[in-house]
Design goal:
about 260 residues; alpha+beta; OB fold (Dihydrolipoamide Acetyltransferase, E2P); 3 domains; 5-stranded mixed β-barrel; elongated
Amino acid sequence: MINIKYKIRFIWLIVVAISIIASGCFPQTAITNGMTTDETKSIIIETVAPIETVIPPNFTPTMSIEQNDGEIISAPADAVVVTDWWGVIISNPSGAQFDDYFERRDSAQIIDYGIDSADPAISAQIKELRDSGKTIHLYGLLVNNVLDVNGSQIQPDRIEVSDAAGGWIPPGTSEPISDWWGVIRSTPCGAQFDDYFERQDLGQIIYLGIDSTDPTIKAQIEALRDSGTIVHLYGSLISNITDLNGSQVQVEKIEY
C-alpha cells in the first residue's frame, strides 16, 4: 500500500512539473538557487517594451467666421453686381476718414457709398468727377463690410456720364419719353415732394418726380397715387430740376 501511495505521489509530482515547464512559470528561487551573484546577472531578462502612450492630437477648433480672438465679426457678404446705378461723386471734408463717396440717386432715397477702383484710369476718373455735379452711371461691384463710407464700397469697372459729350447736363434739359410704365406713389408725410413715379419697365426700379402743367392730367396723377394701377406715361423727362432725384416726368398723356 505504501509503494502504491508513493507511486501516486510521484506521478502527481511529474504532472505538476510538466505543467510548470509548459507554462514557463519557474519560481525565481528555484532558478537562482545555488548560483553566484554574477551568474544570476547573466540570466537573460526579457526586455519589456515601453508602453506607448497615445496622446490624442490637440485639435484647435476651426475658427468660426463669427469669432476672432473673442471678437464678433461678420463675414463679408457676396459682392453685388452694380448695373447703371446713377448719381454723383462728392468729396468729404478735409480731415475726414475717407476722401470721397458716391451719392446714389436712382432709388426712393439718397444712399451714400464709398467708391474706389483698382484700375488707375477709372481711379483718376473718379477723382476728376468729384464735386463736378455730373450725373454718372456706374457698372461694377458693390462690396459690403469693408472700411469705407457706411461699410460699403462700389468698385466700378466702367463709368458713364449722362450726356453723350460727357459734360454737365444744363438745368431743365428735357428728352421725350414714350410708354414708360410703372406706378405712382405718395411720399411720406412731411417729405419735400408729394409723390413720385416708380418706373418698372427696366431691369431695375427707378424713381422719378412726376407732374404736369395740364390740370386734368395733374388731377389724374393725384387720383392714381398708391392705387397700384400700372400707368403708361408719355411726355418729357426733365433733368436737373427740383424734384425727386433731380428729375421729373412731365406727363402729357397717361394710359392705364
